[in-house]
Design brief:
Chain lengths: 478, 478
């Protein structure tokens, strides 16, 4: 369990977490900065993580009956304006195209910040009867939001995401879809990214522009701040009315369908870095790691070592384990540091003595534990170790979340907890916007969600003293 | 072999091929028109074709050592201007972003028409030594070109594509890459899309803006016009010099790497429609068809029919054949027409008498042949039939290409052939731009390529009478 080696090129995470994060995304080769502020280049290693996220989620979306489509990247200003709340939410932060070639355009077009309006326009063309419902679409693309302050993964002017958009014959069905997709996100975060979530509903203040209800999965980062990791929205029939989308129901009456949307982005990569990383760099959860195992031959020039390492690598690959052998000229020490920086979940060292004993040495990235593993049945053993790394990462993150979530019963206590300990606070709330604003003003926290797992930790709202309606999770958010 | 049924909703392809094409893309559910001219919505069925194209090519790119990345969607004007030929080629047809939120930007940003300049900027940050080379990247994304006339798939202001970008230590290696990727495109067109290609080099006039050499695969459509289906470019070190990209070579000298790029787009979907379709609609090559087989129960209310159809469907699916059963309330005739319109390569009919005889009836979409197939070992039989459909489509397209490619030996003959027969002409050429321009002016054709398969069909250029350098394929192009 001994820590092997201190990589000194990156900032200490407990000294300056923000700088540590920036160091990691650059040094691990995930990101390069482009010439335009807030636009980041996803390098092969960073993009490969996104590809693994895509591949798992895309299968799950399709299993649940969703189909992928491709919508235009540009939205006419008049289309964006069709739903009042929506345009108010997004118009201030979009990029405007005003010229095509040498000509000024008759109407400004914005680069999509999200595509509800485009999907609605399309549905208004193609929806006819109840037989066409539900329409359950998804799109993988990039969107733009002209943010003032930007950071790799966490807040970019452009980011990659998926946006699901569905319409249904009834409100019930649409609500079911909204919650089902939140569950997909929650399960994905926990089971694939080893990130424990607090699922719940957003307050009205924190809802998506134009939504009736917004649901979220909130995660706690290493620095105890919150990261909203995926959201799912129920729109009722608001957009459908604004866009005049109707269908002939079974009784031949024209009705408005009910709508949802849900999205998850490359922000989540920022989230997993800030959840799992340590002072030696990135730690990738095995199920989305582009390379799950790196095999390092020790005393590689000794006869038979490279061959044995190749054989081991081939065996693991054949079992579907994403494995690379590093037989470069660098020293083992340099390689250990390099692959730790890149967060590879499991390192396997194989030297002449190991080969003699028919074993190899596996080192877990999450806790540096060294395990001697027999080479017989190695693929099964390594699979098990990768699960152990996943479980180890999850348990550590869960302990961080649980031990830093504090029930509080007064405004004073809330301030003290946030100032001295940080983390999330659980507090009852009356449901009034005024009290929510006061929490921001006086305590410096926003409501993260009204968690599904409610506890009756008091009867009144500690801010105003009126009867409490919900327990809310509050925190400082990215 | 009898034609089953005339679907009357679409225009006759021999009356008005352009209108037939538009009818097919809409009626088969591939495309919807968005509110912005030249921007098309890829509906689920259209996008699923692209996903299959992506999946096959992505695997092949990766097998050959390429890695995917994600570059920004916006390019600063100053960056686009760094390579002179490139900016001249693209600046007239880009969309310009001038405002972010409510602020005017200090510098205009264009939406990428292609990303050479972005890749070059990135390489100038990250390339250090010969050990880093080659860098072989690819990106799946959409690009914008502000075209005046637009048509679904064939010419959109936005289209989906992949763009490969690589740099190499030597010119030889880069040239090898350029030709290798053209070969990938050629094999893909022929083996997966059943589209025979004429591979070759573009003349200087037809080269990509900034390239030293451009290679192309040209296909002939049903109307005998040419479609450029994929291109691969060798840049030499021109961009690398303009962007000051250098690496320390093994001898410690700083050198400029040599660069390639290569791309293939959703245009190819337009190509396969125009290659294979008929008056009953789309015909999809089996290897990229989202649904390869549709199973239609006949007299579905008779006991056991649905169950037998379900069992058959499950068997085919289990064998990895993309199969759907249509047990909707519509009549078999309606279903036949519908699935023909959508181009499903093989239809299987299964009725009570078939079940009694332990057979089903397969109908090929390419030639309407009806084949009685034993239900035993059905998956193998269906696999074979799908190959037959592929081969049938390829043979028909190859016959179209071969019988409509005419060797000509004089300008007069060229004019006559183009005016009376159409198609491609093979003609010797001196290599001078003037003669190429004269061919356009007088015959109305552009040079499609200098094919790799050269024939010495004469000694002089029929336009000017000077000694001939190459045989060129000329035609009218989309």
């Amino acid at each position: 369990m001994a820590k092997e080696k201190k990589v000194t090129q990156i900032t200490d995470m407990d000294q300056d977490f923000a700088q540590w994060f920036t160091d990691v995304v650059v040094k691990a080769g995930l990101i390069d900065y482009s010439g335009v502020k807030g636009f980041f280049i996803l390098r092969p290693y960073g993009y490969a993580i996104w590809e693994n996220i895509q591949s798992i989620l895309d299968k799950e979306f399709k299993r649940l009956g969703h189909e992928n489509v491709s919508m235009p990247v540009l939205i006419p200003e008049s289309l964006l304006q069709k739903e009042k709340d929506h345009v108010e939410g997004f118009a201030p932060e979009v990029a405007w195209v005003t010229h095509g070639g040498s000509e000024e355009l008759p109407e400004r077009l914005c680069i999509r910040p999200t595509s509800e309006t485009l999907f609605c326009e399309h549905w208004s063309h193609v929806l006819q009867s109840w037989r066409d419902l539900p329409m359950k679409y998804n799109q993988w693309c990039s969107v733009l939001r002209w943010e003032k302050t930007t950071r790799p993964f966490l807040r970019g002017r452009e980011f990659l995401w998926q946006e699901g958009h569905t319409i249904h014959a009834t409100a019930e069905e649409a609500k079911e879809e909204t919650l089902q997709m939140l569950k997909v996100y929650a399960d994905f975060c926990e089971n694939c990214l080893a990130m424990p979530v607090v699922p719940g509903r957003k307050t009205d203040k924190e809802k998506f522009a134009g939504a009736e209800e917004t649901y979220t999965v909130e995660c706690m980062m290493h620095d105890k701040k919150a990261l909203q990791s995926g959201t799912s929205h129920y729109f009722g029939d608001g957009f459908c009315r604004a866009f005049d989308i109707q269908f002939a129901d079974k009784d031949n009456t024209l009705r408005y369908p009910h709508q949802t949307s849900w999205g998850l982005s490359t922000r989540l990569i920022g989230g997993l870095i800030m959840t799992h990383g340590d002072n030696n760099g990135l730690i990738l959860p095995p199920r989305i790691a582009p390379v799950q195992v790196v095999v390092i031959p020790i005393a590689a020039k000794k006869p038979g070592v490279i061959e044995a390492a190749e054989e081991l690598t081939a065996k693991l690959k054949a079992a579907g384990i994403r494995t690379k052998m590093d037989d470069s000229d660098n020293s083992p020490g340099w390689k250990f540091a390099e692959h730790e920086m890149r967060g590879i979940p499991l390192r396997i060292e194989l030297g002449p003595r190991d080969i003699e004993n028919n074993v190899c040495v596996a080192v877990r990235r999450d806790n540096y534990e060294k395990i001697t593993v027999p080479l017989d049945d190695i693929a099964n053993s390594v699979s098990g170790l990768l699960d152990d790394v996943h479980n180890g990462l999850f348990a550590k993150a869960k302990a961080n979340l649980d031990s830093n979530t504090h029930p509080v019963h007064s405004l004073e206590e809330a301030k003290e907890v946030i100032n001295t300990k940080g983390g999330f606070i659980k507090m009852m709330w009356c449901g009034d916007l005024d009290c929510e604003l006061k929490m921001k003003e006086e305590v410096g926290v926003s409501s993260r969600c009204i968690p599904f797992a409610q506890e009756q930790i008091g009867d009144v709202c500690p801010v105003c003293g009126k009867p409490a309606k919900h327990m809310v999770i509050w925190g400082i958010a990215y």
